[in-house]
Amino acid sequence: MLFVRRFAALAALLLLPLSLQAQYLNTTFHFAPQGMAGTDALVMLVPAESEQLQLSGWSQQTVAQISRAMAAAEFDGAVRQRLEIMAPAGLDVDRLILLGVGDPASLQRSVAEEIGAALSAHINGSNAQVIEIHSELIADNARAVDIMASVAHGVDLRNYRFDQLKSEPDDRPSQTYHWVSAATGDLQQRYNALRALAEGVFTARELTTLPGTDGNPAAFAEYAANTLTPLGVDVTILGPEEVLEAGLGSLYGVSKGSQHKAHLLIAHWRGSDDRPIALVGKGNTFDTGGYDLKTTDSILVMQTDKAGGAAVVGAVKALAGQQAAVNVVGVVPLSQNSISGEAMLPGDVLTAGDGTTIEVASTDAEGRLILADGIYYARDRYDPAVIVDIATLTGAKSTALGSEFSAIFSEHDDLIATMTEAGNMTGELVWRLPLGPYPGIIDSRIADIRNTGSPGAQAGAVFLQHFARDTPWLHIDMAGQAIVSSPSGVHPAGGTGHGVRLLTEWVKLYAGQQ
Ligand code: BES
Ligand code: MN
Ligand code: ZN
């Protein structure tokens, strides 16, 4: 637990605003070659087509009872099956829980995580406090380690709670888990990398879930700086005057009507001397729609319109936490899309950092306005090898793909291929949509381009493409995936941190192929 302790110590040293980000989890994990006395729940990972379980030290009576229970429940280790046997004969535990993992050779990492998430949800609904997990029924030791680490990662992902705004947090899981493995060192190492990834997801969930006022542009930037700087990430924050001085009129325009003016966050993790990989995330800290006001209940979750920016901060945090040998620069344009006498008006023309004039055909298409300058800034100042942007950009995307897939857009088939691979690996799935031909899709009569067009998701993407120019670029539209209202899979209710695992794995895949 060295790694986790070091983290907690670092956080404790800093006096953080809102006392956020100190400690995300109350569970305790131990990795050891043997179990311990005092276990409440004994958990076995069971491969497919198991009829009888035989562990050293189990009596014939124990084995017979378990076999009978398995037959009665038609449990044979098929993937995602669960069988709980209370008060198993001859075993000094309250519960024996069998978890089917199917064929260990082909078990996907994301499925193992979901098995872990389902286990922790089940444990949280029980009185079990000490849990012991075994993988020795999986014959291949290396696979057993990978699967166990992913199951542990799934437990972590599901057990996060956003409770710092409650006077009395009451729902924090606080069990002790013993992960029993002969290859303790390998397992601990594998888990530590996933724990760093989880810390990135938690940061993104936190930033996504923060209410609009608490999570305003300056607060978001400060939060990110506080969490990233101790990990060795170089953080630069441009305030409103600097945003104006840099000529980022498109970014600035969106927050003109708010007392919370535009900021630009830059987080640079230099883990290698390669050309940088730029990640640009939409950090609109609240989306009222502006004068094209949102008039339905959809406005109620618009504090999550910073989820793309949160994903970028989370991915940079995960890569730094893993000490990944990659050069990645995260750029997060931060805004609050509000109404006042100062606000941009429908039909106004803004001038972006690269000189492009933009007709604001809808004040509610603000994401692309701030991303335009984020992408321009990344390209102009960092000369990146590639730019990936991620945003809760369009309702049209949500309608087309729901929350099961993000939409990805790129003219580079190799980027589509690596992003698809990262999606399959992490379970954060992506689906390609076209950038054209859509002739005239963002043409404007009075300016260079306009910020709306049809079809809606493609218009947003084509608009952003204009600012990436010749730099290889891929756009991720994650609208509808920032928050869940009830727990599902690896997500507790609230901000999902979606995109952190996708971006983190993609950066490593991309860098490995360079
Ligand atoms: N933040 C919204 C997109 C969104 C909608 C995210 C629903 C999550 C859930 C974005 O700024 C927006 O308002 N998009 C408009 C664009 C339109 C006015 C061209 C949309 O999709 O309706
Ligand atoms: Mn909007
Ligand atoms: Zn928006």
Descriptive account of the structure:
- By secondary structure, the chain is α/β, with parallel strands linked by helices.
- The protein has 2 domains: 28-181, Leucine Aminopeptidase, subunit E, domain 1; 198-510, Aminopeptidase (3-Layer(aba) Sandwich).
- The chain has helices at 2-13, 60-73, 109-124, 141-159, 184-209, 217-228, 240-245, 249-254, 307-321, 367-382, 395-401, 413-426, 456-468, 500-513; strands at 28-32, 41-47, 82-86, 95-102, 130-134, 176-180, 234-238, 263-270, 277-281, 283-287, 327-337, 349-351, 357-359, 386-391, 406-409, 430-432, 449-450, 473-477, 483-484, 494-495.
- Strands 7, 8, 9, 10, 11, 14, 15, 16 and 18 form a 9-stranded mixed sheet that branches. Strands 1-6-5-2-4-3 form a 6-stranded mixed sheet, with helices on both faces. A 3-stranded mixed sheet has the order 12-13-17.
- β5, α4 and β6 form a beta-alpha-beta unit.
- α4 (141-159) runs parallel beside α5 and α12 (413-426) crosses α14.
- The longest helix has 26 residues, at 184-209.
- The protein is elongated, with a radius of gyration of 24 Å.
- The model is unreliable at 1-21 (pLDDT under 50).
- The structure holds ligand BES, manganese (II) ion and zinc ion (ZN).
- Residues 287, 298, 305, 362, 364-367, 392-396, 398, 452, 456, 479-480 line the site of ligand BES.
How is this fold's topology laid out?
Layout: H1 2-13, E1 28-32, E2 41-47, H2 60-73, E3 82-86, E4 95-102, H3 109-124, E5 130-134, H4 141-159, E6 176-180, H5 184-209, H6 217-228, E7 234-238, H7 240-245, H8 249-254, E8 263-270, E9 277-281, E10 283-287, H9 307-321, E11 327-337, E12 349-351, E13 357-359, H10 367-382, E14 386-391, H11 395-401, E15 406-409, H12 413-426, E16 430-432, E17 449-450, H13 456-468, E18 473-477, E19 483-484, E20 494-495, H14 500-513
Parallel strand pairs: 1-6, 2-4, 2-5, 5-6, 9-11, 9-14, 10-11, 13-17, 14-18, 15-16
Antiparallel strand pairs: 3-4, 7-8, 8-11, 12-13, 15-18, 19-20
Helix pairs in contact: 3-4, 4-5, 5-9, 9-14, 10-13, 12-14
Bound molecules: ligand BES, manganese (II) ion and zinc ion.
